[in-house]
Each structure stands twice: as structure tokens, then as C-alpha cells.
Amino acid sequence: MISFLRGPGAPVNRLATTLYGYTFLNDFILLYPVYALLFVDTGLSTAEISSLFVIWSVTSLVLEVPSGVWADAVSRRLLLTLAPLLAAAGYALWIIAPSYWAFAAGFVLWGAAGALQSGAMEALVYTELDRLGAADRYATIMGRGRALGTGATMVATAAAAPALAVGGYPMLGTASVLACLLCAAVATTFPEHRVESPESTESTEETPSGGYAAILREGVREMRSSRSVRRAVLLLAVVWAVWGSLEEYVALLAAATGVVAYAVPLLVLLVSAGVALGGVLAATGRRLTDRAFAGILAAGALTLGAGAISGVPAGFAAIAVAFCLFEMATVLAGARLQDRITGPARATVTSLAGLGTDVAGILVYGGYAAASTVAGHDVIFAVFAVPYLVLALALTRGGGPRSGGERRRERRASGGRRVSPDPAPPVGRFS
After folding, report:
1. Are β-strands 205-206 and 194-195 bridged in parallel, bridged antiparallel, or unpaired?
2. How far apart (Å, rounded) are the C-alpha atoms in residues 345 and 207?
3. pTM check: above 0.90
4. What pLDDT score was predicted for residue 249?
5. Could you tell me the pLDDT band of residue 396, with boundaries at 50, 70 and 90?
6. Which residues contact 166 (CB under 8 A, 6 or more apart)?
7. Fewest CB within 10 angstroms: 156, 232, 253, 387, which?
């Protein structure tokens, strides 16, 4: 262990370890699997619970881009520290004064916490890896971090039942708040090397100057001037939004197969295991061509459709494989976006991608609600596999990414600077 911490790759390992601890604690929330039950036990109707989800989504949507600009203007580490504290306040409010308005306030705090993390985390990790000359490990480290977050949710789900039986909702709330406080403590150990002027050092990212408006303009300018950035933002938004939204309905799909109630969580855990595995396997796809990446999406779409339309519990094995592939594609799409960003407003551009994901996710929720009036969950899941087939076809026909010379011309046009060498990947490669 001492050799591991002192070796040539020690700074990268410390960054990865901090990220892993942060993502695990951030998702180790025992209230996650039962908060809907808390709402019902408090007397809320289905319509009131649905309105809470809308409040949650709108909060994230409104704060997504402003929080990204703030991360570029102030400190990404600061935002990652504040986020779990806001979530902790929301969970505490739910337990101390359970009521509709307390739940609504909690969702506002929770949505704000998610917005603070979105963009800031990816930008901080990529910038630090780039500073250490290890940007090529971004997909590996972020994939493992996301896998640990999924694993934490699975562990929390397993622990929630006995904890609820022993101490009720107060115990779950206390454990959730404690996890958030520990998460905030871990966030303070993230490294962050940023300076006001790029001339002062060759190994740190320039901190944008000129205030909020100037930083937002910088992020939008990079989006407008770089076609590769726009494509990467759109790709990430579409890939993540569809399956990420469908994940909220997995339990309903499981129940529709006719299994007994206690088996539903087992099927949900199977799908979660697929998501975790996808995060771990993401590193293996770092050098995939666009055609190979399209193949991942197409395979995920076909297995999702087949598993859902089967209407039997065994079909969840195929659904788990599909979610594994989609998670893998999401991590790779995120890595592609970070590789394409060259200016200092990295968190802002990443948050613009998050904004696209939020908007697309709301459309998926709305489409699912409308489709539920005429079709069952199995058919709806199969229908939502189609966008991945369309995207796979578009990637296959769209050709590979631009050459290094074209990206350098885009970089000059956007005014962006890259302080570490930017070795161009082989032509036709995805990464």
C-alpha cells in the first residue's frame, strides 16, 4: 500500500480513490428505496407524489447550467463539498417534519445538490488527470466511480429493509444524513489546480475571468464554434436520457411479469448489477471506432426490446445486459465530450450536456406517461429501444471523428487553449 501511494502514479491513484469514496457515499442513501413509501405513509396521493418528482426535475433543469458556470468561476471542489450538505438538509427535513411542503423543499435541495455535482465532478476529474498526463484514464476511472455509485445504491437497498424494521424512517434518515456528511468531508480532499493565467504554469487549467456572463459566453462559444463538441453533447444527452429515465420504471416492468412482490427488488437488483458492470467495462471501449460504438448501442437496443417484450422474469437477464451496454456507452460518450472540450469553461459545457439530458429525460417521462394509456410496460420499453437503433444508424453513416488538424482549427476558432499535449487518436477512432 505504501508503494502504491508513493509510486509514479500516486497522484492519479489518490484522485481515483477520492472519487470512488465520494461516489460511494453520495449514493449510499438508505432513504432511496423507500422514500416513496414515506410519502404514502404521510398521506400523500399519487398525484401529489408525481408533483414532487416534477419539482425535483424542474429544479435540476433550472440550476444545471448556472451551477456549471459557477464551478468554472469559483471552485469545482467547493461545489462538490456543498452538494451533499444540501442533500443532507433535505433528508433531515423529510424526517423531522414530514409533510408535502417539507418533501417539496427536500426535493428542491436534492435537485440543487445534483445540479452542483453535474459538470463540476467531470470537469475536476478530467482537468486533474490532464494535468498529470493521464487524461486517457478518464473513462476507466469515471466508469469505476459510476459502478461504485450503483453498487452503493444496491447495498443501501439491501440494508434499508432491516434498518426500517429496527428503527423506522428516523434511522434511515439519520444514516442518509451521516453518509452525506462523510461525502462532503471526502470532497474536501479533492485536488484542484487552477490558476488565473495560463502563462504562470504549464500544467494547470486556466481559470476563466470576467464574471458569470463571460464564462457562460465562453462555454456557448465553444459549443457554437466546434462541431465535434456539439455532436459529443448531443450524443451524451440522447444516450444517457433514454435508459436513465427508463430505469425509474424497471420495478413496474418487473411487477408486470407477474412475479410475487418480494421478487421485484431482486429483478431490479439484477438490472442494477448490469449497470455497475457496464461502468467497469467502459475502459475496454476506450479505443472503439464509431462503428463499434454504434454496435454497442444497437446490441443494447435489441436486447432491451427482446427482454422487455418477452414478458417473463427470465427476460430481465437480457435487460440487465442492455443496461450494461448503455452504461458503458454513457461513460464513453462522457469521455468523448471531455476530450473535445478545449477551452477553460469545461464545467459549463458539461452542464450544457446535462441540460440536454434533463430536457430529453422529461420528454421520455412525458412520452412514457402518454404511452401508458394505450400500452403495457413491456411494449413501452421495447418502443424506447428504437431511438438507440436510429442513433446507431446515424453514427454508422456519419463517419469517424475529425482529424487532429481539423480539431486544432476548431480550437483556434473557439479561442480555447489546451495546456497539455493533445495527441490525436488514430483517425476513425471513437476516443
Report:
1. parallel
2. 8
3. no
4. 83
5. confident
6. none
7. 387
